[in-house]
Predict the 3D structure of the following.
Amino acid sequence: MSGKKKLFRFKEMETFSNVLEPVLSDIMDEEDTGVFKDHPMKGKWKSEFFKNENPLVLELGCGKGEYSVGMGRKFPNKNFLGIDIKGARIWRGAKTAIEEGLNNIGFLRSRIDFITSFFVEGEVDEIWITFPDPQKEGRRERKRLTSPMFIDRYRQILKKGGIVHLKTDSDDLYEYTMEQVEERGYGLIQETNDLYGTLVDQLDADTQEIMNIKTHYEGIFSAKGFKIKYIKFTIH
Ligand SMILES: C[S@@+](CC[C@H](N)C(=O)[O-])C[C@H]1O[C@@H](n2cnc3c(N)ncnc32)[C@H](O)[C@@H]1O
């Protein structure tokens, strides 16, 4: 995408009421001690952002937000919030939600690392992690969105019994996450290393429809012949 087009999108997104783009000083301690403070929206997503008390579902590393938009269309009585640091990608999902008049879909432009500055305990009902960057083994492993550091943060904001879904094309990330589930005693509900080859036909029609939402990255990796993996688990 050209720089000009990106700038246009960034500018247009400033006018979108369904996108929150915090500045770092909103959550960074003034003395820069490395301790993060609470964002004013923390604890108020339902009442102030979505203006209802419906359940809140997050899509982490949402990119263009295909899951947020797809599930938002299907479940008008739930709120969906896509989180990603890349503004030009978020723009796509936010624009679609506005064009279709879907008020139950929003986007937060932030690093997921700061997630506990944005949500209080139990504020989140469910989490989807859609095709996250696999990150290499070793020093980069902690950047994986299913690493202990991230899961411990999700635990602080997810309601008791709340479900985490991971959809990935990466064998490494699938195997790593399965190891984490076993080693750290998360509650495994369902898993497969070949979603469309095995599991999907056994699911009810609603769940099949959700699983068949294809994200941008899913399209790229499916076309290259990668099998899609899926893990559903709880973390309390
Ligand atoms: C491979 S892309 C997948 C995007 C989309 N879910 C899809 O399936 O098409 C991973 C996305 O995660 C975002 N991401 C990775 N780590 C992040 C972090 N720590 N905080 C915020 N966004 C992150 C990237 O900006 C990128 O858009």
